[in-house]
Amino acid sequence: MKNISLLSISTIALLLLGITSAGFFGFKYLADKQYGEYDLTNGKAKFLANCAVCHGNKGLGDGIASGTLTVSPDNIYDELKNPFGLKQELISSVLDGDNGQGGLMPAFQTTLTEKDVNDIFGYIESVNL
Fold first, then answer.
1. Which mean pLDDT values do the consecutive 10-residue runs of the chain (129 residues) have?
2. What secondary structure does DSSP assign to 48-83, as a single string?
């Protein structure tokens, strides 16, 4: 009888985990798509003008200025591929600056819009395929 109870509890736990996971990844998909289609031409122009010097040509954190910084720039491509991260968090990091790096990354809210940053992310994804 105890085996049946443990089996039932395990089944319910797995079912709840599956439902929760599906809910999160469904939310992530919808949240990440809220900015619409990428404008890769805009993304490339904005990336090269604002990001490449620190983050490198593909957004991997290896730009020409990266060696002079006390904290290495993030690998944006890895951040975008993180299955548990939300694009809105990354966009906020770019616009607000100080993305957990001790305030070393400047804020770009006067230079870029949310759509611009989303286009930049699309460009980074396209050059790393």
1. 62 72 62 83 98 97 93 93 88 84 83 97 96
2. HHHTHHHH-TTSSS--TTGGGSSSPPP-HHHHHH-T
